[in-house]
Fold:
Amino acid sequence: MRGRVVGALIIGAAGCASLAGLGDFQDRAGEGGGGAPTSSSSSSGGVAGGGSAGGSGGSGGSGGTGGASPPLGPGWPDSSTAHCITGEAGGASSPCDDTVPSPQDGHHTDLVEPELAFSTEVLTDGLTTLQWTRGGEGAGTWAEAEVTCQNRGADWRLPSALEMTSVADYGESASVFGTSLLLLTGSLSWLSNEDTTDPGYAWVMTAGGSWVSVDKSLDRLVVCVRGALPAPDGVVDATTYTDRTTRLMWRSTSEGPSTWAEAIPHCATQHGPEWRLPTIKELVTVVDFEAPQLRGGIAPVFTNLWSSTPSREQSHRAWVLAPSLPAIFVNDIDLQARILCVRSL
Structure:
């Protein structure tokens, strides 16, 4: 895994799960989002200029009489993704060089690394401060899963979709929970998020990395977590949303729709070389599960959003976020989806 890893690695395996019933939604391209945003200076508000959004801070990139800019947070953990695809209909795997649409997830070697430490039973990520049970806690219904974690004591609980995705590695081939991470031996793990459209359903995460809503009465794997993710520290202005915790700045309006190959270079072409298409792990950080939609004042999107992360197993597909479900899954790269641009701070 691309990241700092401390301790022994214990090898396990997990299978992948395919998604059913999402075809109609995948074809609903072109909805929502609005037109292309105007350009924005990163010094708006209190992010780069210092002081509050009211403008009492200094100008430019350093603080003035209003004081220094607030410190940045720890960032958001990246995956070990090192594979790329050609972006052509039908798809093919390729080295991450200049012969393929760029920059894909695999081109980025400078994103934030997780800080993983292993014991036999617990995985700790020093970046997010979360601790995870390894090997799972058996299987049960959603209600039973909640009790299982609570019975461990010491603040153990079911993880949220965002927490579970933080430890997923979309560079792994068989399971995003890997040959060395959570050591799960099944394909679907309960999340704490309930489906806001049906109280009888809750969300699970598949071994392949997707979010799927299923009946709470079904037996699914149980993984427990304790700790808390750092709270978002966001600043909203007319054209951007900046989260200092994840160290990411987002355009406030999506663009497109386009195919995946068209989406990959779009952000740099339209907004400058520092802007790019987000990875799937970055994209999920702006999901509001309760709405469900995007947070931070980002304009609602009612179709899919492309990520720069290609599928590890299916070279004609790439990862997308459907904010209004919300769900993440792989989509054929020749279909249309919208673009939400991001830059690192």
In short: The chain has a mean pLDDT of 79.
